[in-house]
Model the fold of this input.
Amino acid sequence: MSQLYVGSEVGQLKRVMLHRPERALNHLTPSNYKDLLFDDVLAVERAGEEHDQFAQTLRDQGVEVLLLHDLLAQTLEVPEAKTWLLKTQVGEYRLGYQFAHDVRSYLKSLSNEELAHILLGGLSYIDFPNHSASMMQAMHERMDFIIDPLPNHLFTRDTSCWVYGGVSLNPMAMPARQRETNHLRAIYRWHPLFAGQDFITYLGDEQRDYDNAMVEGGDVLVIGNGAVLVGMSERTTPQGVEALARSLFANGQAKEVIAINLPKHRSCMHLDTVMTHMDIDTFSVYPQVMRKDLQSWRLINKGNGDVEVKEADYFLHAIEKALELPQLNIITTGGDSFEAEREQWNDANNVLTVRPGVVIGYEGNVYTNEKYDKAGITVLPIPGDQLGRGRGGARCMSCPIEREGL
Done:
């Protein structure tokens, strides 16, 4: 079996990709943070320190941590990858023929390390040292961006997600995040860790317009036993779920996909902000959202490329059936109604399971963490005063690349 394999949400985690927040957060200001999908500006140094503690907590548990910036810089050493990325990320229709040419010429003069910083963190007109014959410079303010920063790269879970023996390079819903996928496309194609390895690409291996078929990894839970749980949120559409399911089935990687129709609001941005898998039979759930009356469906592989869609009576029963368990153990968000709402907003339910019954979560969610502890779940606490302002917890900030099955 290829080492590039994620067989569950709770089996021993072996390798994971993170992105330490850096230049992109420096470019986050009170005037642009909403366009860049953040709820606030962050203290950059502190966010970096918090992230370092997260990475160290994983390493202390024997997990190999790969950093996105390093992977990208190493990928840029491959001439074909560098040419493709510059053409894709600094396109002629994005910047105009002349200006794209001038910007690419400047970027080619930089080291791969500096170029990775700019592709991830953005480039403003004030930082572009050359004069271009294009109209673009004259028509923009100095603090406008030539290349937009990508602060949401912090949430490596969403851009690509490994499901059993393959990866989905996700067609992202928000324009502020769509360029992220190209970085992962280049890394998985050309980086020595991935190039020539035996893995399947379910979605996104080719440049194509996925139209309304959108998927983000925060909505995709690989619950094991050949089953995948997907939330249809603000960011993942029924069309996206169907496209992913068909590809999983066609490649013999899954038996069924359970799809849940989630409320479309900010506090429930992805399925993993309201529900995560903590032990073989145990899930954390925010009950105000994960109600019994949510519509859910089972997409079942009929073979010959056919998919059977059946409405499920209750999503928890569908999960029990898929995992062949008599009953799930559900741990709800801690505290009274007010405390539970606050802690869910601060990602109390968004934990990263390292191995069965051991999870990483923000230390500030005291009521929920206490509840997990009493239920026999060990919480490895990390600080999140700054990181949490991006509305994502430990699961959001991690892309497992190698993990054991159930």
